[in-house]
Design goal:
Layout lengths: L13 H7 L8 E9 L3 E3 L5 E3 L5 E3 L3 E3 L4 E6 L4 E4 L4 E8 L9 E14 L11 E4 L4 E4 L3 E6 L3 E7 L1 E6 L2 E6 L3 E4 L7 E3 L45 E12 L2 E5 L8 E6 L2 E7 L4 E5 L2 E6 L3 E13 L2 E13 L4 H9 L3 E9 L3 E3 L4 E3 L5 E7 L4 E10 L2 E12 L2 E10 L8 E9 L5 E11 L2 E10 L1
Parallel strand pairs: 9-10
Antiparallel strand pairs: 1-4, 1-6, 2-3, 2-5, 5-8, 6-7, 7-9, 8-9, 9-12, 11-14, 12-13, 13-16, 14-15, 16-17, 18-19, 18-20, 18-25, 20-21, 21-22, 22-24, 23-24, 24-25, 26-29, 26-35, 27-28, 27-35, 29-30, 30-31, 31-32, 32-33, 33-34, 34-35
């Protein structure tokens, strides 16, 4: 899976830059060079090469190649990127019209080398609008400053805020000062003490101008008008949560809800994800091991633990590849109002975990996005949905239906496969509604009878 960065930055008018620094034969300007030393070049998509120096413009589709030199560029949204020697950084698709109106976009590729960046306006209101890709991992930026060193592996250090590092083997959330190491696309990101350090310029070159967090200026030195970054959504540790989870418990595949659908779960959150929970109906405490893919929109959270433990009244059991959804359940008064109004609501996919499967001896981990939707008929207390889950060489599809009870729901269905292994495959889902007026729905699923064993995963939906 490719790597992905999300960025945010200040303000500079593209039209003004185009007037002052015209570039004949290239697309509209995306960035201006603030500093360049050595044999720094811009490579066009058709292979043409041109030297660049301070004041030069960089266009959509061009690749900055620092060679043995270095460069710093400032994008029209105010973002700043400092490029180390032996770095190639490509502008894949950049759009900014002077304000964050939803049409902005910043898609980039780090082909090799290292960079440090302070984010701008692109991605500030919607971080999905910004990404930087490599072949090793996907990095979703949720903060304002980070550094990356990339060769055959990558190190990613968060300076301010937090970011998420994901690849085919899992995800890891980094907070300020933390660093991730990713060996390759199929190896899980892990914490490391070795930071991604961009070497400073030689003394005779001086420090890169204006490149400190919180000091964003326009190219003429005037302060850039940059709104503060939006607060990251969080869930607060405490009682009253609903939870559904599925995974491998003590070596036997199965689905477990820990009575969380009755609101009996007390949850502890750390680093943006679920770190532990305890259940009062079933007196047990559950603690994560290595977490991956911990995400939340502030209403519902979802993620996967590679491992964990259950303390069941002093007896300790192991857990592996546990997928979960967690959130404050929709109130019974809201559920009753939806039922009395005979409301039918449709939901689209908001997020998911990559699926895992256990065949009794080995795990198979999915690397492709899943798909799905659901429809809730609150008046009839029924629910139905579909899931498409790629795993290994096949894609498994299920249409399922079931019942709503309180704020929770369950369902079962059949499963088809693009392979020839699903004559008797079945599915089961377990979930709940979260937020006011059932704004969110979360579920975990199990597909059984496949050639890879039982497939597990989690999915969340928005109304």
């Amino acid at each position: 899976m490719p790597i992905e960065f999300k960025l945010k930055s200040g303000a500079a008018l593209m039209a003004a830059l185009s007037a002052v620094y015209p570039v004949s034969g290239y697309a509209a300007s995306a960035a201006q060079v603030d500093f360049a030393a050595g044999d720094v070049k811009a490579l066009a998509p058709d292979g043409r090469s041109r030297p660049i120096a301070k004041g030069a413009e960089i266009a959509n589709g061009e690749t900055i190649d620092t060679g043995s030199g270095r460069a710093q560029v400032r994008f029209t949204d105010g973002a700043q990127v400092s490029l180390a020697p032996q770095t190639q950084f490509r502008i894949d698709d950049y759009r900014f019209t002077g304000k964050a109106d939803g049409s902005e976009k910043g898609f980039f590729s780090l082909l090799k080398g290292g960079l440090r960046t302070i984010t701008g306006l692109v991605g500030r209101s919607n971080r999905e609008n910004y990404k930087v890709t490599t072949t090793v991992a996907t990095i979703g930026i949720r903060g304002t400053e980070y550094s990356v060193v990339y060769g055959n592996s990558i190190n990613v250090t968060t300076g301010e805020g937090s970011n998420e590092v994901c690849n085919a083997a899992g995800c890891l959330i980094l907070n300020s000062g933390e660093t991730a190491y990713v060996a390759d696309n199929n190896t899980q990101p892990v914490m490391t003490d070795k930071k991604a350090e961009i070497p400073p310029p030689p003394a005779q070159e001086g420090q890169l101008p204006g490149f400190v967090a919180g000091n964003n200026t326009n190219s003429d030195g005037t302060p850039a008008t940059i709104p503060p970054p939006a607060a990251l959504p969080t869930l607060t540790s405490g009682p009253g949560y609903s939870l559904a989870a599925v995974g491998v418990f003590d070596g036997s595949a199965g689905m477990y809800d820990f009575d969380g659908l009755e609101g009996a779960t007390s949850a502890t959150f750390s680093g943006g994800g679920l770190a532990a929970f305890s259940d009062t109906n079933w007196p047990a405490s559950v603690t994560q091991g290595a977490p991956v893919g911990m995400l939340t929109d502030g209403t519902i959270g979802w993620g996967r633990w590679i491992d964990g433990t259950i303390d069941d009244d002093g007896s300790i059991y192991a857990m592996q590849h546990v997928h979960y959804v967690v959130g404050m359940p929709t109130s019974l008064s809201d559920m009753s109002a939806l039922q009395l109004a005979n409301t039918t609501a449709t939901y689209s996919l908001l997020g998911y975990t990559y699926p895992t499967a256990w065949d009794g001896s080995a795990f198979t981990i999915g690397t492709q996005p899943i798909s799905g939707s659901l429809t809730a008929n609150f008046g009839a207390s029924t629910i139905m949905g579909n899931l498409g889950v790629p795993l290994g060489a096949n894609t498994y599809s299920s249409s399922w239906s079931g019942s709503i009870a309180g704020s929770g729901f369950y369902g079962t269905g059949s499963v088809t496969s693009t392979g020839s292994d699903c004559c008797f495959c079945g599915s089961s889902v377990l979930g709940f509604f979260a937020g006011a007026n059932a704004a969110r729905a979360g579920l975990v699923y199990e597909f059984n009878g496949t050639q890879y064993g039982d497939i597990h995963g989690a999915a969340v939906f928005k109304k």
